[in-house]
Recover the amino acids of this structure.
């Protein structure tokens, strides 16, 4: 039988009654109850003290254990156990990690727990077990608890009704903005960045002094977040949006500097990383990118971080561009991240709201007004009570003989108490104080002390009453206390803010525009080497090693270009890929290079057969054309602008006939003369106007009629009629190293589609023609590359000028069975001759 029933009290008639419920309505109500419980009791901070319930309970427990900043540390297990047993019903497994985060200087701008022992690291290492670590509160935590014993906040029953806990802490500083918070609730989340205490206090003071202060004025005081890991913020647009609306996106970059050793070796030193980025995972990410060849130019990565700070060393390969690699690090790794600000907090402890910067400050000020009001009332009452007692004691001292007489004549304390109240018109409290008065109080100095204390209490009462009656004075008190906090705990800003937005950085801004030699092998290995790697030699020399090739490989193509140029790769299937010259791997002249598949998305069985470099400005010239030639003598002319937008997967450049392949491409202005040279030394020159412009995927028309066993070896363009050209010459080079210069005027203009005329006398001694190019500047250099990778560079003026039907002279000799693979012309004005000869085998 229940107790109520035993006392014959009426029972609730609904007890035991089963009521039908709609399951949808019941689920909705239950889910909303659960959601609100998560929002209010676990996930979101209170706008007044900036704390979640578990954090607040940890600080309260630290106070209960008298673990002030100057106290001796206590075991974390004791603290977590008391939090769990007294306030937080969710278990120590949730409490200890929350306390660990409050102690981490890389998680909180101003830690609230002073930890002793292993409290984790920025590499993601977990803290030691709670039985091994100790803790106490910090000075900032002490500020949050200041005056909590003066009835400044409301209390409520704890989870088992055995004690009370504060609903909110008095919070002498705007903690929500100082340390920020991360909280994921049901249907909402909070992500508030940390800020500098001096800036936030100045902003709070500004609103105290001038409530109508607008965002434009506040942003001058608080330029943006201030992260514990420092780093750099780029752009103010996201900050302005966040401070105005409560939502915004901030781009954070780590700090990295390029250092060069005395030996010329370059390294990238990372000294600061973005907030909430795991350093170990960052280093691992960089290593993975290098391993997968998505990040070139890095030879080694070391983490040399210690207690003094972060130091990640990235060693670079010789010839790499540090700024380009650094830009790639920002793009591909967490070295650059976006912090999405979502300033959601609980208002009045129950209502989640998205708040602007000014609203957060206003709610804090309102909270402080309430705290200072309640504290002042508490202190006022204490002062009134003490003054009342002091007045009674002084009254007794003024008539001490009579007081002593009344006490001596009274038989009991109660009798003396009543007679004193009646005789001197005292209150019960005053009469009790007189009865408890010591004999030492009768001395003259003691009376002076009581009088002095009474005067002080009366001044304090007057001061407190003025605060409570004057809102302006109340705000001045709050302001003074905030400025005192700033004076004691203010520090310098760590995070640097740059006004410009990050956006997509142009690689041209980070890479010097220099002359390089681009080399492509027959098996499609590509590289670029500074033209300065090759020194000038005389005609007939052996050259230096320009590339280490495998026995079955040979150099197929070489051209000179600037690093800022576009480079177009045309394949034997008639497809086009486009990239920048600086995207090609920069290696030493002896290195083989990298597979073209690492640069463009070419098919495994597809070969690059033509390469064209072009300055970016050429795309804006609407009258420019691309003239293409195939192995079987087909030519095609198409507007250049039709090839401007090239997908990463490539586009169709020409529709080839069966058995044919694309071999040659050149840019023209629509008025040029096209010249074709064949393997057997035949040539034909015809006007570009003989080729009508076609669509991007057209097949083209016949350019030269080939004899049996012959094929096109080169196509080039020139301006005007060759017969009238006194300036240009045709450079022809044969497979066995013979070459010559022939005046272009010896080649008469013909109609497209003929068999042409002789350009060189091809014999067994010379071998077939390997290349032919139109030249004009004899101060330029000709670079010959052999199949085995030998390279020789010489002035064009050293190549003998001979007639059209001649063999030429020896330009390159070979140490063994070898042959010329490619020919390139380099502008002498952009080259710097090396003073030291190097011969490598």
């Amino acid at each position: 039988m229940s107790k109520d029933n035993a006392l014959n009290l009426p029972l609730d008639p609904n007890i035991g009654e089963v009521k039908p419920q709609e399951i949808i309505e019941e689920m909705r109500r239950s889910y909303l109850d659960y959601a609100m419980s998560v929002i209010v009791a676990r996930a979101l901070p209170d706008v007044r003290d900036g704390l979640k319930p578990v954090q607040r309970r940890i600080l309260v427990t630290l106070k209960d254990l008298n673990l002030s900043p100057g106290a001796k540390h206590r075991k974390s297990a004791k603290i977590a156990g008391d939090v769990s047993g007294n306030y937080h019903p969710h278990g120590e497994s949730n409490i200890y990690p929350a306390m660990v985060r409050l102690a981490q200087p890389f998680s909180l701008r101003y830690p609230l727990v002073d930890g002793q022992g292993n409290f984790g690291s920025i590499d993601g290492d977990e803290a030691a077990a709670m039985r091994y670590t100790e803790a106490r509160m910090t000075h900032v935590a002490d500020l949050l608890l200041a005056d909590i014993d003066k009835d400044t906040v409301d209390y409520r029953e704890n989870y088992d009704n055995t004690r009370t806990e504060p609903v909110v802490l008095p919070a002498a500083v705007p903690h929500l903005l100082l340390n920020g918070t991360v909280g994921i609730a049901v249907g909402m989340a909070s992500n508030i960045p940390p800020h500098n205490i001096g800036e936030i206090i100045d902003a709070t003071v500004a609103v105290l002094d001038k409530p109508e202060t607008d965002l434009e004025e506040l942003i001058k005081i608080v330029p943006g977040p201030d992260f514990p890991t420092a780093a750099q913020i780029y752009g103010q647009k996201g900050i302005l949006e966040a401070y105005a609306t409560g939502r915004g996106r901030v781009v954070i970059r780590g700090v990295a500097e390029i250092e060069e050793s005395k030996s010329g070796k370059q390294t990238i030193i990372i000294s600061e990383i973005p907030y909430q980025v795991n350093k170990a995972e960052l280093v691992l990410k960089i290593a993975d990118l290098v391993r997968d060849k998505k990040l070139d130019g890095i030879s080694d990565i070391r983490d040399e971080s210690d207690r003094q700070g972060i130091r990640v060393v990235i060693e670079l390969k010789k010839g790499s561009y540090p700024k380009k690699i650094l830009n790639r690090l920002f793009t591909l790794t967490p070295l650059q991240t976006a912090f999405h600000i979502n300033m959601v907090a609980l208002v009045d402890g129950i209502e989640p709201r998205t708040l602007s910067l000014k609203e957060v400050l206003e709610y804090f000020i309102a909270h402080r007004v309430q705290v200072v009001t309640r504290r002042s009332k508490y202190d006022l009452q204490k002062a009134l009570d003490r003054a009342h007692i002091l007045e009674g004691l002084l009254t007794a001292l003024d008539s001490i003989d009579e007081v002593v007489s009344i006490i001596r004549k009274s038989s009991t304390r109660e009798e003396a108490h009543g007679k004193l109240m009646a005789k001197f018109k005292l209150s019960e409290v005053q009469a009790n104080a007189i009865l408890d008065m010591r004999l030492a109080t009768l001395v003259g100095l003691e009376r002076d002390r009581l009088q002095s204390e009474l005067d002080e209490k009366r001044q304090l009462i007057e001061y407190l009453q003025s605060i409570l009656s004057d809102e302006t004075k109340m705000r001045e008190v709050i302001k003074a206390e905030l400025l005192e906090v700033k004076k004691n705990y203010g520090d310098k800003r760590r995070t640097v803010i740059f006004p410009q937005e990050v956006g997509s950085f142009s690689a041209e801004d980070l890479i010097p525009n220099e002359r390089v030699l681009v080399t492509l092998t027959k098996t499609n290995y590509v590289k670029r080497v500074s033209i300065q790697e090759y020194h000038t030699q005389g005609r007939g020399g052996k050259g230096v090693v320009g590339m280490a090739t495998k026995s079955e490989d040979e150099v197929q193509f070489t051209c000179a270009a600037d690093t800022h140029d576009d480079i177009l790769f045309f394949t034997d299937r008639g497809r086009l890929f486009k990239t920048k010259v600086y995207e090609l791997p920069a290696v030493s002249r002896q290195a083989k290079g990298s597979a073209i598949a690492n640069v463009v998305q070419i098919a495994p069985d597809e070969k690059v057969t033509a390469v064209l470099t072009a300055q970016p400005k050429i795309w804006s010239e609407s009258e420019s054309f691309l003239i293409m030639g195939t192995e079987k003598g087909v030519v095609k002319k198409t507007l250049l602008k039709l090839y401007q937008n090239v997908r990463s997967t490539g586009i169709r450049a020409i529709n080839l006939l069966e058995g044919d392949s694309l071999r040659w491409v050149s840019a023209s202005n629509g008025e040029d003369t096209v010249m074709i040279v064949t393997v057997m030394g035949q040539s034909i020159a015809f006007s570009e106007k003989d080729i009508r412009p076609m669509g991007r995927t057209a097949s083209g028309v016949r350019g030269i009629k080939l004899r049996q066993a012959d094929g096109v070896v080169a196509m080039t363009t020139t301006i005007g009629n060759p017969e009238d050209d006194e300036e240009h010459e045709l450079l022809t080079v044969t497979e066995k190293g013979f070459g010559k210069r022939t005046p272009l005027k010896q080649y008469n203009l013909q109609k497209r589609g003929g068999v042409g005329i002789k350009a060189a006398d091809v014999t067994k001694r010379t071998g077939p023609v390997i290349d032919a190019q139109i030249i004009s500047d004899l101060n330029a250099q000709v670079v010959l590359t052999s199949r085995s990778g030998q390279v020789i560079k010489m002035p064009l003026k050293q190549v003998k000028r001979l007639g059209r039907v001649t063999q030429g002279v020896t330009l390159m000799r070979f140490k063994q069975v070898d042959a010329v693979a490619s020919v390139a012309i380099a502008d002498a004005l952009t080259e710097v001759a090396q003073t030291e000869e190097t011969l490598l085998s």
Notes: The chain has four domains: 51-170, 255-334, 363-475, 512-830. The first helix runs from residue 3 to 6. Confidence is low (pLDDT under 50) at residues 547-552, 828-841.
